[in-house]
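Researcher: Go.
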Amino acid sequence: MSNKVAVIEDDRPTSDQLVGWIRAARPELQVDQWFTRDEAEAALATGGYDMVLLDIELGRERHAGVALINAINKLQQGTPVLVVSAMPAAIYRGIMKALDAWDYLQKTAFDEAEFIETFLDMLRAAKARRPAASSAPVEAELTLDPLWQRSAMWRGQRINLPLTAQRILATLHQRRGEVVSYGELFEVVKSGRNKDNVRKHVSTIRDAFRDVDPAFDGIENVPMRGFRWTGR
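Model: Structure:
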């Protein structure tokens, strides 16, 4: 691990408090503080963070944190994100998790002990996941025809799929590691452009893969958003 943590919070006293707690619990960590979306985006683009803490609102940007989570996801590094916000947890925890944030703490509703426990649990979970992420690239295991007109090959075995399912698979694979929204998948479905129909096609794809690889679990359902190819 690189032992780097980013704290993205526009309120300096809050930022300093969180940083102080982190350094008291894990003094070996390098903790970088960022106070605006622009400077945070520039720092995150370099990668290398083991964990990111961020607020949803930064300055006058009410949803700056959402943009930052999306930027982190595009790096495809599996960086855990802990959202610390004044927004009601009952409403925003589910929303943030749907965006792939790992956890959510509501300001004024937690103390140092709860924060540190959550923070350390996330660091440990991220470390435990890292060896699997560093294994050989999985995309080479799937071979697709450039024109999406022939059956896909998975680990040397042919996958029999209808043409629309092939197109959905190719779209997911092209965007591997990213969430492909239902709206984007509608573009490759010629008829029945609704969520239920897309889900049926994805189910068909999964079943076809499991015919040749019973352990296949390479398409992740992201609630309320769409699907993501993970290639497992």
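Model: Residues 112-133 form the longest helix (22 residues).
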